[in-house]
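Progress report, Aim 2. The chain analyzed during this reporting quarter is listed below.
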Amino acid sequence: MKIRKFQDSDINQIVSLFYETVHTINARDYSADQLQAWAPKGEKIAKIANWKVSLSHNITYVAEINGEIVGFADMTPEGHLDRLYIHKDYQRQGIAVALMNTIEADARKLGLTEMDTEASITAKPFFERQGYQTIQLQVVERNGVNLVNFKMTKLLSN
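Predicted structure tokens for the chain:
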């Protein structure tokens, strides 16, 4: 596995990975309506354009195996972990941990002492294992549908 910085040419693979992961892995914790609100299949083209900008602005890494993107993560310069997704066929292989270690190392280099994220029901146990603490349960509305997630933070040690 190779961890590297995001390149604009990665965007199509990343957006496809996002849609496939949400609609398969997260299906055990969210209804079909919630999955469609979270990752509307009809908005893929718009998401490509929007994400290309945000992923370029953020600190973004991808994980590759044999030239295929199998995961990605991005953090704002202020320490908000915006996205962390691992390909549905590559779950539980240490990819998310490797991406998080890389992102957290960058956060420390920036002088940040804390990171935060909004974790899905599915991802919450992973973040807990990484040392994140739940601050609050949140109900967010996306496309007219309520989704539960968790505001979580982690203190970074030097």
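Residues 2-112 form a domain with the Aminopeptidase fold (CATH 3.40.630.30). The longest strand covers residues 145-155. These observations will guide the mutagenesis work planned for the next reporting period.
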